[in-house]
Fold:
Amino acid sequence: MKRVINFNAGPAAIPMEVLQRAQEEMLDWNGTGMSVMEVSHRSKEYEAMHNEAQDLFRTLAGMGPEWKILFLTGGASSQFFMIPMNYLFGERKATYLVTGHWSKAAIKEAKRFGPLDVITTENPDGTFTRIPKQGEIKIDPASTYVHITSNNTIFGSQWHYWPDVGKVPLVCDMSSDIFSRPFPADKFSFIYAGAQKNLGPSGVTVVAIREDFYNLAQEQAKLSTMLSYRTYAENNSLYNTPPCFSIYILNLTLKWLLNTIGGLDNMVKINSEKARILYSAIDASDGFYRGPVEKDSRSQMNVVFRLKTPEMEETFVKEAKAAGIVGVKGHRSTGGIRFSIYNANLVESAKTAAGFMEEFSRKYR
Ligand SMILES: *Cc1c(COP(=O)(O)O)cnc(C)c1O
Structure:
């Protein structure tokens, strides 16, 4: 068996310890004589694991009992329409801060439900290379919510401060950097994340809603049952069959983060070190590698850079793979190279990758 250095953007690397635990428990989970995939979601064993995953999430996020932690399906993409469907009705409007591909996808859906104020950092050529400054952000206090994307997975930028949005509730798509660093939960009213980048496998989306904002949601009876947050909140995300296996791996991943890593204060140190190593390799390459993102907006999760030509980038991808480093090709919409260095990749992976970059640049300069 040979494990590679996995820089896939999502689904992405999962900690070895989590995979091994799942392997050990595959045939007989928790003394049930079955795998977790074969157990009823109404059983006490399942429900205890499901509730524990919510508690672990709450602990890591520093969220009190005023937060509802929900498990949904349909990916983070389904939240792009579910949020406005549940919150934009009557005379309501919302504000969207657009900083990349996924926030653009979010406004496309939200526009169907109500008027939006849009603040964007899109460049004339359709790329995104920065996060807006506080001075550029004017929020109409009449907005029902402000939506931001904390990390731009495709363009490789990330918010390094949390915008002041006055009293307007802040909604955040944290899909690609959740639990990569501590964050002040009380600044937010709604946080969501597809699990397949930093939390485990695809199949489950975690939605956290604070009580006061939850109370502003549309009545259950006005929406399709499965599209109302109230259905999930009132039934502990067990109205219908949840993605049990994904929630189980989520549970193990959160335990790894809490117990093996030691929580978010330790995680951010590891992540900052990885990002420092890789951006140094870009900046020290004398222009051989070019990072398009403005330095103060660079992502600590998705390190994006270009080489001189698309052909050279293709060679880079091929030789990286031969060196045991996979998943480095940029998104199909942007090209270039992208190293997704989510939580499960530790400092050693970044060191190996930086060594590879240096060798490659020496060979082809
Ligand atoms: C990957 C990603 C999405 C889309 O997630 P799906 O689960 O595939 O729908 C949305 N937002 C961000 C920030 C992402 O990184």
About this structure: The chain has two domains: 16-261, 264-364.
